[in-house]
């Protein structure tokens, strides 16, 4: 006699059990309440159970996709719950007697004065034009084009004044609030964020409650750091459901604010699958010694890489991204769509701004390292070897005499040793492995 087999559990429900603790921690950080987080997690389970019982719906089966779906569903439930609570509170406030004083209490007033002092100190350290431009644009609402004409400079210079000022103000607010600033890895870089809640104060004359709310909005809501070792790749699902894939020997810092999602690429390469949030753009910052590169998207799939030469490579698989300079960069803002690549060369004051970028259309594959392949196009051998060091355990030494030789082709990341052994058949070099160390030198040396 055949017994009926047990029903196959839903992949989503299995994934929920596996990530329950992480989900509750995420919701606790987002709501500030353990009880609230548990309630939202319970609601998420009910929604997933209902989904599993529906006919005709195919939920994600990949573990990482299931986790992303679960976190996204929970985040939406948290938002719905917050909106409901706000609606109830507004209704209660409307009918409640005005028993509270309109002015902030003594503790809040002290916080207000300290924050204003921090902002005033930051503005006092700015060049005169940057300070005037910042206050007249952000506080008094004067147009940047009008300010450029008045000061006799280009609009680009006015924008750079604004970026410098916003960077200083944000850093000051982080110090005041005692939080870790995402600009710590990017000295003197501009931050294009919404400061209107702070700076629409009529020369800083609004009550402390508004300033405190802005500080909570501008400081990080969630942050983490990720890194990989040599010959290791890693995939991480972020709290909003976006997916971050790290190449070998790569490092990033991730910080989510109320107004934007920021990733600082510190080393190596990363590929991003971004969940669209029009009200909270996703940006990737790459800081360099003299300038930086910023990539901003709403929702797309793209890769960003710091090359050994300090060039920055951006490749788009789908969607659209904007790429712009920060710091001392002067090259024009660029937009990329699917199958396009932009390479931003290292900063050089002698180079015309437009010559700092290289565009390529019809790119066959974005971030090919995800699939175990690295491509080179007429690149110096020292850049090639530097790039491949991420995938080998042995030390690779390169003779400076052969480092300028150029190379084009593809290398499998799991076959780097084979590539090094075959290198003398491609270029006029000698390659030897001894005592766990590769030596690439001139022939006969």
Automatic annotation (TrEMBL):
Boundaries of every RNA polymerase sigma factor 70 region 4 type domain copy: 118-167
Residues in FecR protein domain copies: 224-321
Classification via Pfam families: FecR, Sigma70_r4_2
Matching InterPro entries: FecR, Ferrdict_sens_TM, RNA_pol_sigma-70_dom, RNA_pol_sigma70_r4_t2, RNA_pol_sigma_r2, RNA_pol_sigma_r3/r4-like, WH-like_DNA-bd_sf
GO MF annotations, alphabetized: DNA binding; sigma factor activity; sigma factor antagonist activity
Superkingdom as given in the UniProt entry: Bacteria
SUPFAM superfamilies named among the record's database cross-references: Sigma2 domain of RNA polymerase sigma factors, Sigma3 and sigma4 domains of RNA polymerase sigma factors
Biological processes, Gene Ontology terms: DNA-templated transcription initiation
Protein name per Swiss-Prot or TrEMBL: RNA polymerase sigma factor (Sigma-70 family)
